[in-house]
Amino acid sequence: MNHVALQPIQVAERPRWELEAFHRSPSLRMDLVALFTMLDELPFRSMLDVGSRTGLVVREARGLHPGRRIDGVDRFDFGAGARRLRKRYDVMTAVHALNHVPHLDQAAARMAEHLTAGGHVVVVNPNPAFTWIGIEYLDPRTLDHVMAPHGLRRVRRLEYGNELLVYRKN
C-alpha cells in the first residue's frame, strides 16, 4: 500500500469546475480535487461513476477528459442503468457512495464484473469524524475485505482529512 501525500491544488487551476455551485462544503471540494487529480494519473479510455446523483463527476470528467467514454449510474445494483452496462470500463469512481450501500458485497461484485482487467476503482470515503452527524464511515480494512474476493486489491490510499482509496483489478 502506498501512502502518498496529496499535493495541494487550487480549484481555480481546473477548468469548468462547478464545485461552489454544487456544494459549499470545503471537504467535498477537496474530495473532488483529489478524485480528478487521481484520474489525471490513471490511464483510461472509459469511466463509470457509480452513485452519480447529480451527475457532477460525469460532467466534469467529460470536460477534463474529452474523447473518452464517461458514463454514470445512480444505483449500486446498477438498476435501470444496467442496460447500458453491457460494456466494461477502465475506471470506476464512487464518491461518498459506497458507505451508503446496503449490500456492499453485491455492489463490489457488479463493479468488478464491469471493470476491465487491470482497471481501477477509485473510492472517495468521507471523514470518520462526521459519523456524529449521521454519515456512515466505511473502514478501509472492511472495504479491502469486501473487494478482495472479486479480484480488487488496494494499491493506493491518500489521506487528506477524508480519504481516497484506489483498487486495481487483477
List keywords for this structure.
170 residues, alpha/beta, Rossmann fold, 7 strands, globular
Plain-language structure description:
- It is a single chain.
- It is built from five helices and seven strands; from the N terminus they run E-H-H-E-H-E-E-H-E-H-E-E.
- It is α/β, with parallel strands linked by helices and 170 residues long.
- It has a single domain, classed as 3-Layer(aba) Sandwich (Rossmann fold).
- Strand 2, helix 3 and strand 3 (69-73) form a beta-alpha-beta unit.
- The model is unreliable at 1-22 (pLDDT under 50).
What layout of secondary structure does this protein have?
Layout: E1 2-3, H1 19-22, H2 26-41, E2 46-50, H3 56-64, E3 69-73, E4 89-95, H4 104-113, E5 115-125, H5 140-147, E6 152-159, E7 163-169
Parallel strand pairs: 1-6, 2-3, 2-4, 4-5
Antiparallel strand pairs: 5-7, 6-7
Percentage of residues in helical conformation = 25-40%
CATH class: Alpha Beta
Alpha carbon gap, first and last residue = 15 Å
Sheet-strand content, in percent, reads 25-35%
> Please, how many domains?
1
Specify the CATH architecture. 3-Layer(aba) Sandwich
Q: Could you report the average pLDDT, rounded to the nearest whole number?
A: 80
CATH superfamily, please?
Vaccinia Virus protein VP39
The side-by-side strand order for the widest beta sheet comes to: 1-6-7-5-4-2-3
CATH topology value? Rossmann fold
Largest sheet: 7 strands, mixed
Q: Given the helix and strand composition, which structural class is it? A: alpha/beta
Helix and strand run? EHHEHEEHEHEE
Identify the overall geometry: globular
Please provide the count of β strands: 7
Residue runs with pLDDT of under 50 for 5 or more positions: 1-22
Computed over alpha carbons, the radius of gyration is: 15 Å
User: Count of DSSP helices?
Assistant: 5
